[in-house]
Amino acid sequence: MKDCLKGGSGARGIQTGTTVENLDELLESVRKNLGRLLNARQGMCETVPDYGLPALTDLTIGTTDYLRKLLDSIRDTIERYEPRLRSVRVSLREEDSSNTKKVFRVEGMLVSKSGEHRVWYDTAVRASGRFDIDG
User: Of 5, 30, 89, 114, which residue is the least packed, with the fewest Cβ within 10 Å?
Assistant: First the structure.
C-alpha cells in the first residue's frame, strides 16, 4: 500500500494483524525527530559526533555550490539518522527576496508496519540557522 500523506489533523489508523498503527502519531514522531536532527550541529554530541548537520558556516555560504551542499547535507543526515524514512529527496521550494529564509521540501517513503507511504515535510531554515519543520 502506498499513500501520499502529509501530517495534519484527522486520525488515520491502519489495522495490521492484532495492532492498530496510528499514522498521524508516526508522522508527528518523524517530524519531531527531523526538527531535533536538523537543529543539531555535528560535534555537539560527544557519543555521536556526526549527529546533525555540519555548521552552516562550514558549508561556505556564498559559493556557487552552497545550496547543493546544504541540500546534500540535509538528505545525508536524514538518511543516516531517521531510519523510518527511505529514498529521501530534498528540494528548494522557495527563497525569500531578503534572503532570510529558505523553504525546502523533504520527501521520502515512510516505512511502517502497514507498509510504505509517500510523505513530505516542508522545512524552513531561517538566517539564524534554525530549522522549522511542517508536516
Answer: 89
Predicted confidence at residue 67, as pLDDT, reads 83
Structurally, the chain folds into a number of domains equal to 1
**pTM for this prediction:** 0.78
Give me the helices (H) in 49-132, please.
66-81
Amino acid identity of 76? D
Mean pLDDT per 10-residue segment, the chain (135 residues) = 41 48 91 95 89 75 73 95 97 76 92 93 87 87
Provide the residue range defining the domain that includes 53. Answer: 4-134
Question: In DSSP terms, which residues pair with 95 in a beta bridge?
Answer: 102
Q: The CATH number of the domain where 62 resides is what?
A: 3.10.450.40
Alpha carbon distance 34, 83 (integer Å)? 11
Distance CA 133, CA 56 (A): 17
- Please give the Cα distance from 51 to 80 (Å, whole number): 9
